[in-house]
Amino acid sequence: MTYKQPGYYIDLPVEPNEIKVYNNNFSLLIKYHFIKNKKITIAVASGWTFSTRQNEYYIYENDGTSQHWFLNVSSFSDYRIPFIVENAYAVSKKINLLARLKYNLNPQNGDTYSGGLGLSIKL
Fold it and tell me: In sequence order, what DSSP letters do the residues of the chain get, joined into one string?
C-alpha cells in the first residue's frame, strides 16, 4: 500500500511538501470456516504477519546563516500475530455481504484493531 500525507513543515520551500509512505504486509494465515446454514458463513483465521514501512520526506534546516533541505528516508519492520473473524451473508447466488474484524497482537509497537464491511459480486 502506498499513500501520501501532508509534510511535517508548514513553510517548506520544496514542492510538493508531502510524506510518501510505503506500507507492505506479508501474512501466513490458517483459516477455518464454520458453516451455520446456507446463507451465513463464519470464518476465523490466525497466523503470522511481517510488516515493513518506509517514509520518504524532506527535512528543512535553518541555522541562522543558511537554509537547506534534504530528503530523508526512514524505514522499520516488525512482526504481528493477527486474529481475524469474518462473516459472509449470501443475499443471492451472486451477491454476498461481508463483515470482518481484525486484531493485531504486536508486542513491539502496540496492538491495533480494525473492522470493515464489504460487498462481493461473483461474475
Answer: -EEEEE-S-TT-SSSS-EEEEEEEEEEEEEEEEEE-SSSEEEEEEEEEEEEEEEEEEEEEEE-SS-EEEEEEEEEEEEEEEEEEEEEEEESSSSEEEEEEEEEEE-TTT--EEEEEEEEEE--
Q: Which residue has the cell 513543515?
A: 9
Question: pTM here?
Answer: 0.65
Q: Could you tell me the CA-to-CA distances from 36 to 43, 52, 90, 98, 122 in Å, in that order?
A: 10, 37, 12, 15, 21
Residue 64 has which C-alpha cell?
541562522
pLDDT in tens, 39-48: 888 999 999 9
Q: In sequence order, what DSSP letters do the residues of 87-107 get, joined into one string? A: EEEESSSSEEEEEEEEEEE-T
